[in-house]
Amino acid sequence: MTTTLDSPGPGGPDPAGPGAVTGTAVLRTRNLVCGHGRVPVVRGLDLDLDRGSVLAVLGPNGAGKTTLMTTLAGLLPRLGGEVLVEGQPLPNARPAATSRAGMVLVSDDRALFSGLSVRENLTIARRRGGPTVGEALEVFPALKRRLSVNAGALSGGEQQMLAVARALVQNPRILLVDEMSMGLAPVIVEELLPVVRRIADDTGAVVVLVEQHVHLALEVADRAIVLVHGDVTLSGDAAALARDPQQLEAAYLGTVEPAPAPGSPATGSAATGAA
Ligand SMILES: Nc1ncnc2c1ncn2[C@@H]1O[C@H](COP(=O)(O)OP(=O)(O)OP(=O)(O)O)[C@@H](O)[C@H]1O
What we know:
- The protein is of the alpha/beta class.
- Helix content is 29%, strand content 25%.
């Protein structure tokens, strides 16, 4: 059961209905099934994400958000469906090929080399043709003073900045950010999340953002989906979702109204769960 909540905006409804092929999507999934072993966790997910757009993936614990991100990154084999980058299907469970296609994951454990300095962490990750270490640090000036400090000695907020800066030097076409706020004080999260928006705006990267701070995430995202037990229970324009906390709460609880009747497709959906 999927409900959509969209604000058509001044240009009228988004012509792309759920699952529509717009021809412009940088990241597209079709009937994507993710899971562990043979057990499906996320079922039948269709996404169409255009250049420079930010999608917030919301949902309660255990909904399948990390499973989705890990599968998109090619670290977990998908159980069904397709993932396409700029129209090119990605091979299944091939992280190197996925990375070459421009997909970069900032995982919730940050996965830094704790015994290496900030500079070393960035230098070894840098991809030729991508932003320089100096350019990446322009996004996080606070790290400039910490260049020779080992990653393991940084504060949680600094480690998260480094994890995102390390993703930036890989020149992502698609940036997957899994729970940036994990273990961070809300005041730090409020500083970090807008950076994600800036990255999408400045570099044109698609950003997929898993976040528990729902309202902060909706402030920086263009669109959002709510995943519950692996199904999309709500999808739509982030600003519209932010204005409707009751609908959001109902989606989290799995008690949303049924999706619009067949023949009246909801417009502008970033995502649907296949029926
Ligand atoms: N390695 C694993 N092997 C088997 N099942 C797993 C594994 N990791 C997660 N799961 C199961 O997959 C489901 C989705 O977990 P996932 O971590 O993707 O949810 P999540 O939405 O990211 O939750 P959270 O917000 O708590 O991080 C859960 O039922 C979880 O128990």
